[in-house]
Design brief:
heterodimer, A: mainly alpha, B: 320 residues, alpha/beta, Rossmann fold, six-stranded mixed beta sheet, four-stranded antiparallel beta sheet, 10 helices, 13 strands
Chain lengths: 276, 320
């Protein structure tokens, strides 16, 4: 009985999310010129990242065992997953500000979960700039990679974009949940999300074993794109891990969703029982 | 029929204070053993000094805060457990912050709320038309909320809180910062809504004119305790605040001396005498008229501010 009502409630979430998102899109499209400018500028700013990589390759042949095309694949997947996660959930990082000003209370008096309102808040289509740019890099990179494509590899690549986005999204949510305890900790989450994207756009083998262990077992950023890409490219995994470790990305994503969900609920419960 | 029931409700907060290197934790009871019921259609003024526990009570009634003790029923449910279910049946206006979307035109905010609360299109249109007329929102519908003045925004917020036909509305300082005309119009509107829709209204305010104009019942809270619950008239007499007799004499004279009243101020020919609520004014007036050249006279009831100031200075918890 209780389960069927909570299931019914959960079924309403996508609709509620979409409704709020559409509202924000409409309001941002009220100023189309400004929207177009910010979209293009985001694309250009994020694009300079990859230009640096390309320039680097004018001096070297390969980097951490990756050719330029392979680097493009790694960069594209890192940027795409972060971009999609940021688009869908990035707004939640401002929760600390809402707690401080008491505006969180406004969400709590509405018949829509605070989480839905938090991730949809100020939904900005201009954040599509990064996924667009990432998509462009990916298309070019895939054209430069010589590889025996199989259906399995294709599926792994596509699924890894989704699971990678989920992992980044869960980190956004975990960071937001942490702000219920420490209001000014937004930057901490940023170091894992935006910082994580910086990290995962390079072959992790260049960073040394401790970093690889950390992003495998502690903050599983290596599952966002590195391990799936290694699988697709047929390269061996580091730390003596099996080459199929990239196939675990969906399981890691599910675990991250569970963790983020527990953390968010815990944070909200703490807020509602301390009122701070 | 009661729509709100509180039984022995408490809410404690842990306050950490730091003196030098030592951190001490102290429990503060923002609301302590509070009980009351509110009937359907009542308009209750909920007043108290800053930090008395008003906002904490409202937050518990809306389900935002979980009480640390006691039981609450609002519209038949436990607010903290059924927060989102209850949300459709209550409306909340936070005077200091808006529930509207800053960058959206007022009408877009209203449209989002319609979907969020699942109000039928027909009902939404009907309510919107009513509120646009009564709150004079016609010219404001296309204006983004951030460009509205405080009074305009408050009108928008109140309409937003009422669009889904809530049974209970909590208004936290709804008239704060408004000019006199806006205040009067808002009070008139709230009285109308209460009358037409039998909406239960809980009003926290520092503006005692709000209470005077709207509330049939007043609850005073201080240090988390209820110190008064009853009518406004009862509130005045309960504290036996002195009444004032303002006497205009034909000339400037030394202070009047009569039994039962004392002069507190002399302003030329005008003298101010205070006397207890328990004393009848008529014999005093007769005495003065018999011995002094009386030209005009008014009796001032104690201001509600002075009554409440006395309650705070001298709290006597109600027993009921």
């Amino acid at each position: 009985m209780a389960e069927s009502t909570s299931l019914r409630r959960a079924m309403a979430w996508p609709g509620q999310y979409r409704m709020l998102v559409m509202m924000w899109i409409r309001s941002s499209l009220a100023y189309p010129a400004s929207f177009a400018l910010t979209l293009v500028s985001t694309m250009l700013i994020t694009g300079t990242d990859f230009v640096a990589v390309v320039l680097m390759f004018s001096h070297i042949e390969s980097f951490g065992g990756f050719s330029l095309g392979e680097m493009g694949l790694l960069y594209g997947t890192a940027s795409m997953t972060l971009g999609l996660a940021d688009l869908a959930t990035g707004s939640i990082e401002r929760i600390g500000q809402r707690i401080r000003t008491g505006e969180l209370d406004v969400w709590l008096i509405r018949p829509v979960p605070a989480f839905i309102q938090a991730v949809a808040d100020n939904f900005a289509l201009r954040r599509l700039g990064r996924p667009f740019q990432a998509g462009l890099v990916l298309v070019i990179a895939l054209g430069h990679i010589e590889l025996d494509w199989t259906v399995a590899k294709g599926i792994v690549l596509v699924v890894s974009m989704l699971t990678g986005s989920i992992i980044f999204g869960a980190i956004f949510v975990l960071g937001a949940a942490f702000q219920f305890i420490s209001i000014d900790s937004a930057e901490l989450a940023n170091s894992f999300t935006y910082g994580g994207q910086q990290l995962t756009q390079y072959p992790l083998s260049i960073f040394g074993k401790d970093i690889v262990r950390a992003v495998t077992f502690i903050v599983p950023l290596a599952f966002v794109n590195y391990y799936p890409v290694l699988f697709v490219l047929g390269k061996p995994a580091p730390l003596g891990l099996p080459s199929w470790i990239g196939l675990l990305a969906p399981a890691v994503a599910v675990a991250m969703i569970a963790l983020a969900s527990v953390a968010w609920r815990g944070g909200l419960r703490r807020y509602r029982s301390t009122g701070s | 029929m009661s729509v709100i029931q509180l039984e022995n409700v408490s809410r404690a907060f842990t306050v950490t204070s730091r003196t030098g290197l030592r951190r001490t934790k102290r429990e503060v009871r923002a609301v302590d053993n509070l009980s009351f019921t509110v009937g359907r259609g009542e308009v209750v003024g909920y007043i108290g000094p800053n930090g008395a526990g008003k906002s904490t009570t409202i937050k518990m009634l809306t389900g935002i805060l979980v009480p640390s003790g006691g039981s609450i029923r609002v519209a038949g449910v436990d607010p903290s457990r059924n927060r989102m279910k209850l949300a459709k049946r209550i409306g909340v206006v936070f005077g200091q912050r808006t529930t509207l979307w800053w960058d959206l035109p007022l009408k877009d905010s209203f449209a989002v709320l319609q979907k969020m609360y699942g109000v039928s299109r027909a009902r939404h249109a009907e309510n919107l038309a009513t509120f646009v007329e009564l709150l004079d929102l016609g010219d404001l519908l296309d204006v983004p909320v951030r460009q509205l003045s405080l009074g305009q925004r408050m009108r928008g917020d109140i309409a937003a809180a009422l669009l889904h036909d809530p049974e209970i509305v909590y208004l936290d300082e709804p008239t704060i910062g408004l000019d006199i005309i806006s205040k009067a119009r808002l009070r008139e509107f709230l009285a109308q809504v209460n009358k037409d829709r039998q909406t239960t209204i809980i009003l926290t305010t520092h503006d005692l004119d709000d209470i005077e104009a709207l509330c049939s019942r007043v609850m005073v809270i201080d240090h988390g305790h209820k110190v008064y619950d009853g009518t406004l008239t009862g509130l005045r007499s309960s504290q036996s605040a002195p009444r004032t007799l303002v006497v205009d004499l034909a000339a400037s004279l030394p202070p009047i001396t009569i039994d039962g009243a004392t002069v507190t101020k002399v302003d030329g020919p005008r003298q101010y005498l205070t006397f207890p609520t328990t004393t009848s004014a008529a014999p005093l007036v007769a005495q003065i008229a018999a011995t002094y050249p009386l030209q005009d006279l008014t009796i001032a009831e104690p201001t509600i501010e002075s009554v409440i100031a006395r309650i705070y200075a001298n709290p006597a918890p109600v027993t009921d």
